[in-house]
Every structure is written in structure tokens, then in C-alpha cells.
Amino acid sequence: MKSKHLDNIYRLGVKEIWSLWRDPMMLVLIVYVFTYSLYLSSTSQPETLQNAPIAIVDEDVSALSQRIVSAFYPPYFNPPQLIQLPEVDKVMDEGKYTFVLVIPPKFQQNVLAGRSPELQLNIDATRMSQAFTGNGSIQQIVMGEISEFVQRYRGATALPIDTVVRMRFNPSLNKSWFAALMQIVNHITMLSIVLTGAALIREREHGTVEHLLVMPVTPTEIMLSKIWSMGLVVLIASILSMNFMIRGFLGIPIEGSLPLFFVGTTLHLFATTSMGIFLATLARNMPQFGMLLMLTLMPLDMLSGGNTPRESMPELVQTLMLAAPTTHFVELGQAILYRGAGIEVVWKPFLCLALIGGVLFSLSLARFRKTIAQMA
Question: Tell me, what DSSP letter sits at residue 113?
Fold first, then answer.
């Protein structure tokens, strides 16, 4: 009897894989999120100052102003463009430059005379990330050039202490390492929910649920077949992406054990695929399912600790998100992939994922049985 249940679960799961194989849009989505989307996340860094467009109005045309102009260079800034003062409003309105620095007449003369001349920095604040970071960077660059010009030499002030900084786990402070690895964690969550939910809704829209109802299979077998088949697809895709895209093409080093990480991924997939079934039982069609996904994935992504540390969030949010599987998956992912942690460090997130997965599976199964009974 037990072997018959396992055989039903296996055969129904194979059917789900074949149904997915005949769905070209889902296949394109899987390939996209585990390849090109990871590349975009790794190479595009909007929160950093990179190739920021800047223009300078030099009404002084002195040695000091020329030093300031030459201090802005790639990769943080594009080469500065010299414009005239009447053009400032026009270029800012057109959005050609994020920053426009205005150096007034007799600037060098006033600096050497000990006066306090003013520089005007115009910022296009609609480019919020560059504006926030670039404001402080430009002030630091300008003040550094003025200080060195006044002192007549370029050098650093000797301090009575020496601080030795050692960067652990990411010595070059390469943000692409963090972005790509956290993105694959987010994609595992998203795809597992999407694929299992879409598999159930596909059955309903194609009218094949009625076929399943007259077959000698139970709701538990139907649900388990969708969970193992779609979870296996996401697991295989993530393994291939981690080895060929992350480690191979992008060259991002992995500190810890990948087998241990994928064991944690399997536990996480058990929870998220169950969540996908639950959402699919609430939706009547794919558009409704898409709306539920937006309401579910956004807080799971933003509040799990993958984008910002959980410690910076309100305590209530931290406590509520302990019930989300993504919180513990991000925790074990960062510990294993970044810091090379072993099972003695990440056993708590593993245990939490197993418990959350069991609860979500029970809730989803109860809801699925109710839905099946209504359709029957």
C-alpha cells in the first residue's frame, strides 16, 4: 500500500515536469532569473557612485579651479563637462547631469586671502541614490584639493595611531559578490512559489483537476507530487546557476560548503512550495495569483535581511519575520556562502525551516483538501 502511494506521487510528479516542459514562458522565466538576472544584479550597482555625470562652471579659471576640475575622474564620475553659467538651469531641467558645480570668479584669490568663498553645487535629487552618495563625495574631493593647494604640498597628516583594517569575507569590498548571491536566494523563493502555484492553477484552467478527482489518488498525493517536482526543478536550476553562473562566469568565490547550502535550500523549498499551493487555492486564476504574489514576495524579499540587516528594522518587524522561511534561509545562506559556516553554526536556521515547512504544509494541505471538496 505504501509503495502504491509513492508510485502515485512519483508518476504525478513526472506529469508536472512534462507539463512544465511544454510551457515555454515558464522555461524562459527559469533561464532568465538564473542567468541574465543574476548578471544584472551583479554588475549594476545603483546604490554606489559609478560614472555619475557632472558638469562644472569655472568662472575663476585659476590653478585651484583647474585642480578641482581634474579631481573628478572615472569610475566614480564621468569626465567633467565645462559649461557656462546660463546653461545650468537648462541642463538640469533636461536631466543631462546629476551634479553641476559652480566655481565663482576670484575663487583662488579669496581662498589665499583667508576669506570664505562659496561654491554652488546643484544636484538633481530625482537620481536619489547618486545624489545622496555623490553629495558627500564631491564635498570631500573639493575640500581635499583646496587643503592641499593652500598647504602647498600633497600629503597626509601623520596621526599618533595607526589603524590596521582587515576586511573579512570580502577583502576588496566588491558589492557584486553580495548582490548576486542574495539574488539567487531571492530567485529560489520566487520561482518555487510561482511554479507550484502555477501548476495547480494550470490544472484548474485546463480542466484536468476533474480528471484527478476521478482517479484513485488522494489530495495528499497530488500536493506532494507538485511539491517534489517543482522543488526539484528549482533545486537543479539553482545548482547549475551557482556553479556555472556565479562561480564560473561571474567569478564570485564561495567560502562554505555548497552541499550544505543546498540541503538548506531543500528545506526552504519544502516551505515555499507549500506556500505556493496555499496561494493557488486562494486564487481563481493566474491574474489573481499574480496579485497575491506581489503582496507576498515583496515583504519576504525586503524584510528577510537580504537587502538590509534585520537589526536595523523595528523590533516588531523582526519578531514577525521569524515566522517567514526566507528570514532563516537568508541567515543560513549568508553564513555558509560568505563566512564558510558549518552545520554547528547553522543548525538553528535548519531547524526553523523544517518546523515552518511542516506548519505551512499542514495549512496548505487542509486548504487544498477543502478546495478539492468544493470542486467535487
Answer: T
CATH for 54-151 is: 3.40.1710.10
pTM of the model: 0.76
Contact residues for 203 (Cβ-Cβ < 8 A; gap 6+): 209, 212
CB crowding 170-206: b at 16 or more within 10 Å, else e = eeeeeebbbbbbbbbbbbbbbbbbbbbbbbbbbbbee
Enumerate the domain spans of the chain.
2-44+170-375, 54-151
Strands 99-103, 120-123: pairing kind = antiparallel
Q: Which helix (H) or strand (E) holds 102?
A: strand 99-103
How many other C-beta atoms are found inside a 10 Å radius of the C-beta of residue 335? 20
39 with 251: CB under 8 angstroms?
Answer: no
Distance of CA 69 to the CA centre of its chain: 36
pLDDT digit string (tens) for the chain, length 376 residues = 567 888 888 988 998 899 889 889 899 999 999 999 888 877 765 556 778 899 999 999 999 999 999 999 887 888 999 999 999 989 888 888 989 999 999 999 998 888 888 899 999 888 776 777 788 888 889 888 888 888 775 555 555 666 777 777 677 666 777 778 888 889 999 999 999 998 888 877 776 766 666 777 888 888 899 999 999 999 999 999 999 999 888 888 888 899 999 999 999 999 999 999 999 989 888 889 989 998 999 889 888 888 778 888 888 989 999 999 999 999 999 899 888 889 999 999 999 999 999 999 999 999 988 887 776 5
The type of residue at 156 is A
What would the 3-class secondary structure string for 309-336 be?
A: CHHHCCHHHHHHHHHCHHHHHHHHHHHH
Contact predicate 251/244, CB 8 Å: no
Q: In whole angstroms, give the CA distance from residue 60 to residue 119.
A: 11
**Could you tell me the three cell numbers for 239?**
545548482
Asked if 289 and 283 touch (Cβ cutoff 8 Å), the reply is yes
